[in-house]
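We treat protein structure as text, and this decision shapes the records that our systems exchange. We quote a single record here, exactly as it is kept in our systems:
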Amino acid sequence: MKTASLAEIKQELQNLTAKQIADICLRLARFKKDNKELIAYLLFEAHNAEVYTGQIEEMMNETFKDVNTNNYYLAKKTLRKILRLVNKHIKYVGSKQTEVELRIHFCLMLKSSGIRIQKNKALSNMYMQQLKKIKASMSSLHEDIQYDFAKQVDELKAQD
């Protein structure tokens, strides 16, 4: 069975009534947790991105408290879990500015966690990868915002 293209789906959705579209959305929400979370974000949180970003940062802060700082293997697993959640929420928001804010917050939390990332290659690579993603996302932002974020990234690098 061939999957329809996005253009075909968009065209078909334009021909449906509001009730039919609502039924399709509810059916989608039943099948996968990610679909339900995305629909919930679009309905309840999309209008206030700052509050949503704050909630994600608070969730990161809480999860960072659970990181085992004595064992690099367990720390790496927990950090990857945090990054998976952050990446999922970044996809939901779809804003480069929010992406940069969340990735910078992750790096700040990682630096302040007490984990010596220089001692472990995997953790060091994870940190460097986040810095690369920050720079890539920053390039599409307005110059003034880029400048503000660049100062924060420079502070991160200065802490090394």
Summary: Helices lie at 6-14, 18-31, 33-45, 49-64, 72-93, 96-112, 121-138, 143-158. Residues 48-158 form one domain.
